[in-house]
Amino acid sequence: MPGTQHATPLAVVGGGPGGYAAAFLAADLGMPVTLIDHEPHPGGVCLYRGCIPSKALLHVAKILTEARQATHWGVTFAEPTIDVGKLRTWKEAVVEKLTGGLGDLCKRRNVMYIQGHATFQDATTLAIRSAQGEETRLTFAHAIVATGSHPIALPRLSLDSPRQLDSTTALALPDIPRTLLVIGGGYIGLELGSVYAALGTQVTVVEMTSGLLPGVDRDLVNVLARALEQSMAAIMLNTTVVAMHEEPNGISVTFESAGVQEPHHVFEKVLVAVGRRPNSHGLGLENTRVEVNQRGFITVDAQRRTAEPSIYAIGDVAGEPMLAHKASHEGRIAVEAIAEHKVAFEPHAIPAVVFTDPELAWCGLTETQAKQEGHRIEVARFPWAASGRATTLDRHDGVTKLILEPATGRVLGVGVAGSGAGELIAEGVLAVEMAALAADLALSMHPHPTLSETLMEAAEVFFGQSTHIYRPQRRRNG
Ligand code: NAD
Which stretches of 435-477 are DSSP H helices? Predict the structure, then answer.
């Protein structure tokens, strides 16, 4: 192969939160490392067209919603004027600041960064075609595959039209459509649907299963569903899209529910958010012994080592849940394993957060999972209607719950629905990972008045002794 040749102890393919966290830790441990990604800086989907830009827009959505609600508190703002161009520029500035910052951290750590596409030639060689078309042959002692995932297209229905959006094009915020159909009531559909609804679009959500966010505990989802009933034009459950055609003024969509086709509806834009697939193709993995399962995930062991001992895989490409923080954690485990530290990926609590308003967050064992797997559990629930802080925020709509081992009160899982749930869940993660008992949460002083008290009071509910809930006493603390 013509072009330059390099050798590196560690090559990391993919610069998202998995890949860059791995490369940075490797550098911190003194390993020379080369990081390869398509973009000019590290950051991946999360920073360029996922978590970060969507959270920037969700922040604006929350401000808009709160400004409208302020009338209840005697403060009336004028109807906001939205300058989409300026909003887009601000969101892009957030992305640039963070990705640029990562590029800087790369340089400071002496991580060699190559912008290009890497393919495996064999178990110790990568061919890299740079963005400028130069070829580099990179030999490595170890490689970490951190190539992430991409949105699933709807089979047979996809249109080659700018009116059809995926998460990337929806986040580009080309304009604010009058109407939007969101196909898929999962994380992306509900987060981006909420952004557009707050910006003034009439949003309809169509979900093929019987409820939003399949797999998530229903009591948490119900809190969000009640809010979405107000903000969305319609939510259609048990419904699929069977036909889509582009018309001069929009996309004509035919729905099917319980085997019956409904008359078509026209939407200015359609956002497809029906899940993501791992990026395991086009990497030359067939030139190695790396195994890829039927769903496209690379098979890995507890150290994230693939069937090819020199190659590791982390993040979305190595299995669910497809979450940035899981990728970062795995990246650090893989690097430590390569550095021959005694480590394994064995979390008890991987937090999940849906950044809607209210937010949903959970970690560890869920009620749904406990039921499916036949675990005996006790659930202690604290409704936010009894929280002073929630009342000051005019946010009674939340609930905090603990999933507990009945005999010991050990915290096996935590679920929160409510404003700021994504921040509150961190205490739940610590409780589950530290094998805390309900008594530990109940006896740890939580600052008043905060929403964090709902975790303490949920623990008190387990003992029948929650200060703000009256319930006949049935158990002694400790
Ligand atoms: P998802 O799996 O969360 O939701 C997809 C939804 O689409 C499901 O409810 C599914 O039942 C439904 N669906 C599938 N086919 C359909 C069809 N033909 N018609 C109607 N509904 C259909 O997937 P997503 O929202 O695309 O997100 C992908 C992944 O990205 C998530 O699993 C998550 O891991 C990650 N993500 C995480 C966050 C976060 O952490 N806040 C945010 C966005 C994405």
Answer: 438-443, 453-462
Given a cut of 70, the residues of the chain with pLDDT beneath it are: 1-2, 472-478
Mind listing the pLDDT tens digit for each residue in 301-313? 999 999 999 999 9
Which run of H or of E encompasses 25? helix 17-28
Distance CA 106, CA 26 (A): 11
Q: pLDDT (tens digit, 9 = 90+) per residue, 113-164?
A: 999 999 999 999 999 999 888 999 999 999 999 999 999 999 889 899 999 9
Atom of ligand 1 nearest to the CA of 186: 4
Q: Around 129, how many Cα atoms within 13 Å sit in the side-chain half-sphere?
A: 7
- Confidence (pLDDT) at 3: 79
**Which of 205, 208, 423 to probe ligand 1 with, by most ligand atoms within 8 A of CB?**
208
- Placement of tokens 């939407």 in the chain: 267
Q: Which pLDDT score is estimated for 50?
A: 97
CA dihedral 64, 65, 67, 71 (to 10 degrees): 150
DSSP label at 356? S
Six-digit token pair at 76? 């009336």
Is 59 part of the annotated catalytic residue set? no
Contact 350, 425 (CB under 8 A): no
Cβ neighbours of residue 345 under 8 Å, at least 6 residues apart? Answer: 302, 303, 304, 329, 330, 333
* Rounded distance between C-alpha atoms, residue 189 and residue 200, angstroms: 16
CA nearest 241: which of 252, 228, 232, 231? Answer: 252
Pocket of ligand 1 (CB under 6 A): 154, 183-189, 191, 206-209, 214, 240-241, 273-276, 321-323, 353-355
**Among the atoms of ligand 1, which is closest to the Cα of residue 321?**
34
Mention every residue, 6+ apart, whose C-beta is less than 8 A from residue 133. none
Pull the structure tokens for residue 360. Answer: 């949903």
User: Tokens 């018309």 map to which residue?
Assistant: 247
Backbone angles phi, psi at 26, to 5 degrees: -55, -45
CA 49 to chain CA mean position, Å: 12
Give the pLDDT of residue 261: 85
pTM of the model: 0.96
What is the per-residue pLDDT for 478?
47
